[in-house]
Amino acid sequence: MSSKNANPDIGQLLVIGFDGTQVSAELCSLLKRIQPAGVILFARNIANAEQTCRLLKECQAGVSTPLFTCVDMEGGRVDRFRDVLGPSPSAAEVFATREKQLYRKHGEIIGRCCRALGFNTDFAPVADLAFEKSRTVMSSRVVSEDPQDVITYGREFLAGLRAAGVLGALKHFPGLGEADLDSHHKLPSVNKPWKRLWEEDLIPYRALRASAAMVLIGHAAYPSVTRTKVPASLSEKWISEVLRRKIGYRGLVVSDDLEMGAVLKTVSIEDATVGHIAAGGNLALICHREEFVVGGYEALVKEAERKSVFARKCRESIARVLACKKKCNVRKVASSASAADKAQRLTRQLWEFAEQVRVEAMSAETYGGRGRA
Q: I need a labelling partner for 64 at 20 to 30 A (CA). Which of 16, 27, 114, 227 fits?
């Protein structure tokens, strides 16, 4: 990086994923070269508790700054630990109890599971509203079409994560409640006017703006607001104007996985990575293919060398990322010799929690949903 605009910390704008359950020579080289802000694991990377802790520790060994060690762990359909710790209840199942203390316990037990396996960041909870249009796509990942219910569950879940020492992320801003396509494959288009979005889908983000360390931006287009088919994850209007200035969010802004079909069917990984940061994002997720990680990284470097305005945005985002790591006391991954013992205890606790949720949900239904939430 020869230009005066180049920044040697530009990898701090990336969270990367990879294949395999151990660090290959290629991955080791990639980590040392890019120096990413974080890594994200999926079920494909997680064989058992000790292996997962070791894998994250070996990832950290190649990176000089503490990593965000990330996972998508919501419970229910999105449960990366199912094969290691047993199943966790979904957000909808826990919400059906109408018990605030169980919403918090849901976050706390998932947080403890994350910590036991070496993770410090969970991309949860989902803050999308449970409208009929998205039911087949979102199903049990969402709790209610009432924004106040979503706020109550989200606030407690995030508090539970914090109690366990794990960072949370509200998703998928500005809302997939009326998106009827899965953004893993196609770009959803939400034709909803600004006033209704502000008074419905955006209420959880407005209310919880100080509660979440991160907000994850979804890959849906909102043509009534932007007059384009550009996904929110690449939209300066949504990120810089609405989320930052109008809502006043001060945490980290993270893209959903830029390898999703909703993005790559319209732009290249290079343009998507640059586009997210240019729009005001802080962390670009590239969750699978090494050539995409390299392409996104090199595109950031080249764009920063060519354009001073973009280079300044990179510097500002890097500073924000590093400040978040310091403020949230993100530390380098340590080995966990007792991971297997912790996993065994957590398996039992998860089962007990799931049983408690089942019984309380039945009770709430019997008494007409009048809980203490």
A: 114
**What percent of the chain stands above pLDDT 90?**
87
For residue 1, the model assigns a pLDDT of 37
> Averaged over 60-88, what is the pLDDT?
97
Q: How confident is the model at residue 219 (pLDDT cuts 50, 70, 90)?
A: very high
Identify whether 288 is a catalytic site residue: no
Angle between helices 339-366 and 49-61 in degrees, nearest 10: 120
pLDDT tens digits along 270-304: 999 999 999 999 999 999 999 999 999 999 999 99
Among this protein's residues, is 184 annotated catalytic?
A: yes
Residue the block writes with tokens 């343009």: 271
Geometric angle at alpha carbon 349, from 344 and 351, rounded to 5°: 100
**CA 231 – CA 281 distance, rounded (Å):** 13
How far is 67 from 71, CA to CA, in rounded Å? Answer: 12
Fold held by 13-366: TIM Barrel (3.20.20)
pTM of the model: 0.95
60: β partners: none
CA–CA separation, 263 vs 261, rounded Å?
Answer: 5
Helix or strand holding residue 185 (H, E): none
Which residue's entry shows tokens 């790559």?
264
Determine which one of 122, 256, 257, 271 is catalytic.
256
Domain boundaries, the chain: 13-366
Burial of residue 309 (number of CB atoms within 10 Å: 0-12, 13-18, 19+): exposed
What is d(CA 173, CA 92) in angstroms, rounded to the nearest whole number?
Answer: 19
How many Å is the Cα radius of gyration of the chain? 20
Q: Of the residues 83, 146, 184, 341, which is catalytic?
A: 184
